[in-house]
Each structure stands twice: as C-alpha cells, then as structure tokens.
C-alpha cells in the first residue's frame, strides 16, 4: 500500500515535534493535580431506586436543578461518555508509541474521571431521570464517533485545542447556573483538567506554526470554519443546544470571544507572515471571524429582545 505525500508530511512533522510533545507531556504531569471523583459527590443525599433494590422510582420533582443546567449536564455527560470513540480517534492521530502514545493514554485516563463524577452526582442527587439518561447513553454510544479530520495530525491537534477550551467554558458556566455549590465545585474541578489538556494541544500547534506555518495555518482555518462539538450527534442536540445558548452557558459570543479568539491570539496568527496558501487561509480566517462576530451580536440582540418580552408578560 503506497503512502501519500500528505501522510509522509504528517509523519515527518510528528517526528520533528516529538521532543516538543515529550516536553509538554512532562510539563503536564508536573502540573496536573491528582483528584478523586468520589470526593466531589454528596453521597449522603443518595437513596435506592426502584428495581432489584425495591427503592423509590425517579420523579421530576426529585430534581432541584433548573431546565438549563439539567440539559447542559446531560449534554456534557453524554459527550464525556463517548470517550472510547475519542480515544480511538486521538490514537489514530498521535499513534501509541513514545511521548505521543503516553499522552494519549494519560489524557484518556484523566478524561474518564469526568464521566464518572458527573454521572455519580446526577444519580445521587436525582437531578435527572436515570433510565432516560442510560437509554440516551446507549443510543449515543451506538452511533460511535468519527473525527471530521480523520487521522490528520494538524487538523486533529487544532480541533482539540479549541474543543478542550470549549468544554472548559461549558462546564464552568453549567456549574454557575446550576444554583448548587456542590455542582459548581465539581464542574470547576473538571474544567481545570480540560484547561490543562487544551494547553498541551495549543502548545503543539504553536510549535507546528514554527515548523510548518502555511500548512498549520490552513488546518487551523479549516477547523475553525467547520467546528462542531463532539456531542453534536446526541439525540435532540439542536434543541438542547438552543436551551444552553439561551441560558448563556455556551453560545456564539462565548465561542468567538472565549474559545476561538484566545487560541488565535496566543498563536499570533494575525501577526505572522505566511506565503501562498497559508496567507490565503489566514485571510479566510479573518473574514470568518468577522462574520462569526456579527452573527454572535445578532444572536445576543435577539436573546435580549426575547428576555424583555418575557419579562413584560410576567409583569
């Protein structure tokens, strides 16, 4: 089986960046805190459910969370549940050898804690219907996960740079709107992991920009223009995402201001010199960011108008 020139380029780039990956891995291991999911769950609130233990079945009145926080937690958890698919996807990008492989396994182990702690919290506090949640998990995971970028190193690394930061923002804001200090503390802890993961990937793209600026710029632009959260395949995702956006948990403004823009500023892509397709890609990115900014403003305006109408009706 012949190897394409693109595959040769990607392999060569990864080899050239192996020492950077090892450095970033060691930095992460020195920075990451050990933590334990069971310490963030209010076990004293738990009681048996119906079924073999003959406990009490779930009712909507059991949940103390508002609709927005509940829907966001469900989306966040179902997204975390698809970790086996993400592990396969990221292993396809980075491989399983050397520093890259060590990172893949460490990242997977850390990510697994997120699903554990969120599910335990939701189950113990009876925040959501556990039967509906389990059915949603089965349905979502049976769909599997296929990365839009395939095994392309630059596209895959650029994507997770943005995605990890987006997940951090979503977790933190979900905790804030939950109205539950325990939930907020838990999601703040999860978000800290996501931030450290983002830093690893973001720093790898920074190194890639030094080695292969034009190719990296094209990958960044393509990922930004085609970006979707990994949970977009969740049943009812569009309805849930509208609820989440209207609550200000994650919307176009946050995506533009708190996810895309910080990474692009850190990389300094609008201050760098590119040639050929790299220069074209940077111009495309600038135009897209302007369009996204305008769309975010329109959404904010419509949301405020809706809120004003609702407030008027209540008064």
Structure description:
With 315 residues, the chain is an all-alpha fold. It has a single domain (5-314), classed as Ribonucleotide Reductase, subunit A. It is 73% helix and 0% strand. It contains 12 helices and no strands. Helix 9 runs parallel beside helix 12 (276-314). The longest helix has 39 residues, at 276-314. The chain starts with a helix and ends with a helix.
Number of helices: 12
Largest sheet features? none
CATH class label: Mainly Alpha
Give, in order, the helices and strands.
HHHHHHHHHHHH
Strand content: under 5%
Helix content: over 70%
Query: Helix/strand/pairing class, anyone?
Result: mainly alpha
CATH architecture identity:
Orthogonal Bundle
Total discrete domains: 1
Structure summary, number of beta strands:
0
């Amino acid at each position: 089986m012949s190897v394409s020139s693109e595959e040769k380029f990607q392999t060569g780039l990864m080899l050239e960046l192996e020492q950077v990956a090892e450095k970033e891995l060691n930095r992460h291991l020195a920075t990451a805190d050990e933590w334990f999911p069971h310490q963030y769950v209010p076990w004293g609130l738990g009681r048996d459910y119906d079924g073999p233990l003959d406990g009490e079945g779930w009712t909507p009145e059991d949940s103390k969370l508002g609709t927005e926080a509940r829907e966001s937690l469900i989306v966040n958890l179902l997204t975390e549940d698809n970790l086996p698919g993400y592990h396969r996807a990221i292993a396809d990008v980075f491989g399983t050898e050397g520093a890259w492989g060590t990172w893949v396994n460490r990242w997977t182990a850390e990510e697994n804690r997120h699903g554990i702690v969120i599910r335990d919290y939701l189950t113990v506090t009876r925040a959501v219907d556990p039967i509906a949640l389990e059915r949603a998990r089965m349905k979502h995971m049976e769909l599997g996960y296929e990365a839009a970028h395939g095994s392309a190193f630059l596209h895959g690394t650029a994507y997770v740079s943005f995605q990890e930061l987006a997940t951090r923002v979503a977790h933190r804001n979900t905790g804030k709107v939950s109205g539950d200090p325990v939930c907020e503390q838990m999601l703040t802890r999860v978000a800290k992991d996501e931030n450290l993961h983002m830093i690893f990937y973001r720093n790898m793209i920074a190194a890639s920009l030094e080695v292969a600026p034009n190719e990296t710029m094209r990958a960044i632009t393509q990922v930004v223009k085609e970006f979707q959260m990994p949970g977009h395949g969740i049943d009812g995702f569009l309805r849930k995402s509208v609820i989440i956006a209207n609550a200000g948990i994650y919307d176009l403004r946050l995506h533009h201001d708190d996810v895309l823009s910080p990474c692009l500023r850190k990389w300094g892509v609008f201050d760098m010199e590119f040639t050929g397709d790299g220069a074209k890609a940077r111009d495309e990115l600038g135009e897209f960011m302007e369009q996204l900014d305008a769309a975010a403003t329109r959404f904010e305006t419509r949301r405020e108008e809706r809120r004003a109408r609702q407030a008027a009706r209540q008064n």
